[in-house]
Amino acid sequence: MRSGVLSLGSCALALTIVSAAQEKRSVKAGVYAAAQAGRGQTLFNSKCASCHAPNRFTDDFFYQSFAGKPLWEMFDVISDSMPEDNPGSLKKEEYADVIAYLLQLNKFPAGDTDLPTDKDALSAILMEKP
Ligand code: HEC
Predict the structure, then answer these.
(1) Rounded to the nearest whole angstrom, what is the distance from the C-alpha of residue 14 to the centroid of ligand 1?
(2) Which has the minimum average pLDDT: 2-11, 25-34, 70-79, 81-90?
(3) Residue 31 burial (CB < 10 Å; 0-12/13-18/19+)?
(4) For residue 46, how far is its CA from the centre of ligand 1 (angstroms)?
């Protein structure tokens, strides 16, 4: 009797985990907040614009690298290797802010909450071509 209840419980738990992992969202679904993109623009201007024009992040090279992939890949590349003259020098939240700005540049809509910084949450968001 007891073990029956236990296995029912763990089965429900497993189902919850599976459905949470499958909850994928697109960058078209409002995954960042407008205020966050505003902070990101300020950061971009001081930390990125010396080497990159904004249109570097709305062209085909950009989509070839990142479209169709989890947004985590973009976060990972940028937070690992940029700014090229001082990689990893921004806080995680600041990298998320800059990426929110890049999404805004691509005219993806803003939503109610900030883009997250953790790997699982960013892995569940799909980067697309506008
Ligand atoms: C000192 C110069 C410099 C600064 C500052 C800099 N970058 Fe870069 N970045 C480069 C160079 C050089 C490349 C490689 C050539 C290219 O792809 O444009 C690059 C490439 C990239 C790529 C392309 C990666 C790919 O695989 O397509 C991204 C995205 C990027 N930078 C984002 C940023 C962001 C965001 C910032 C600000 C936080 C930043 N960079 C600051 C020099 C810089």
Answers:
(1) 41
(2) 2-11
(3) buried
(4) 13
Mean pLDDT of the chain: 90
Which residues lie below 8 Å from residue 96, measured CB to CB, with a gap of 6+?
32, 36, 40, 75, 114, 115, 116, 117
Per-residue pLDDT at 105 exceeds 60? yes
Give burial (CB, 10 Å; 0-12/13-18/19+) of 8.
exposed
**Which of 36, 47, 26, 45 has the alpha carbon at shortest distance from 93?**
36
The answer to whether 106 touches 100, Cβ cutoff 8 Å, is no
84 lines ligand 1 (CB under 6 A): yes
